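Q: Is it fine to ask for two folds in a single conversation?
A: Yes, each is treated on its own. Send the first.
Q: Here.
A: Result:
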Amino acid sequence: MSTAPTVYDVAERSGVSIATVSRVYRTPDTVRAETRERVLAAARELGYVPSGNARGLASRSTGVLGLCFPDYSDPDAESEAGQEADDDAAMLYSDQIIRGMERAARRHGYALLIAASLKGGPESLVARVAGRVDGFAVLARTVPTEDLEVISRRQPVVMLAGPREHVQLDHLDHIEVANADGQRELTRHLIEDHGLRHLAYVGSAEESPDVAARFRGYREACRAAGVAVRDEPDLRVPMMTQAEGARATAALLDRTGDRPDALLFANDQMAVGALHTLERRGVRVPGDVAVTGFDGIALGRLVHPALTTVRQPMRRMGEEAVELLVRRLNGTADSEPVSLMLPVSVVRRSSCGCTR
């Protein structure tokens, strides 16, 4: 087995001092951009990941698992949940994954280190997190492929959400949910069970693999039923928040031509924002237009009318990620990468016209 590269190797390869390499990872803003990039490039080439502390350096074990994902906070959702006095209502997609990981990690005697935002230097942040944990779970498209490839040489990595998109990452364990199946079934329900045929879909400007799969399921259901459907979402928003859902709904209502029979949103947060706009405009839900979301966050059952959605097993995704990491760390996992596809379920509520 080859010797793991050290900080000395990175310093020699990049032509800087050991102290400079240390500053690149600890305080990157104090190092000139050109020097910083040279050090990081050398680290990638060598497969170097900084150790979190002396204990980790000696034993290669920290007793900590890591999770890295973008910040999905939505102030509107948190504010509304507070008004409803429900402890779980403000929990969004990433919050549920965290809860699942925390519970499973605790069962196995691990702590969880979370990097919830990659703003201001994602490369060095990922390296710092990876150097302080024994295993690493990361949401798709959160971390550059080349960085993940380097990290995975030193520790187990599990990809969460979205299909595998890079050959370089085919060796990683992977967990996703049946996004296309869920959106296909929900769309079929609107068309066949409620007789709705003039549908509008709202997606995101920079679609994640999950959102792209949801739109694909929507198109497949429409085409199977002979319903006219565009090759692109009827509207894209820059962020999938309540505020953007409200603005998108206003834009769709202001368009010339017939109003859609149903508005399908790529997540629940946007759908909740849509309900507020429709109420302000005097548009009845579901009498005038049906509204649906995706994810199954708790807030969807608290709004009026309650939101029809596709519930995905967010907590289970977090739990399964920990189980995979622990098996890799214990040496009990198969040598071949594991791919899990978790099922989803359509939750029929009042916003589409269903009653309990």
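Q: Second one now.
A: Result:
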Amino acid sequence: AGPAESRPLLLDVRFPHENEYVALPESVLIPLPELDERADELEALRGKPVVVYCHHGVRSLDGTAYLLSRGLQAVSLRGGIDLYSLQVDPSLPRY
């Protein structure tokens, strides 16, 4: 909710097949192993809050640590998209 410019960017660090199955609306997919090679894309996020997510919240911790090491503002979505689908939006398919 709220104006788009005040909302955090959602960064999905899962693999493409996971993202195709289910993803949070308006999220950006950059798989965890590609973060370093796609660092130039991450620079566009500088100054914006970023919420990193994955399936259960493990890969997103690594992704968040990487973004923080580059001086970006990031947090990990605890429990990943799986917990989000249980507690926030039950219409999202679980896998």
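Q: Anything structural to flag on that second result?
A: Two points. The chain is about 35% helix and 15% strand. The helical segments are 16-21, 39-43, 58-69, 80-87.
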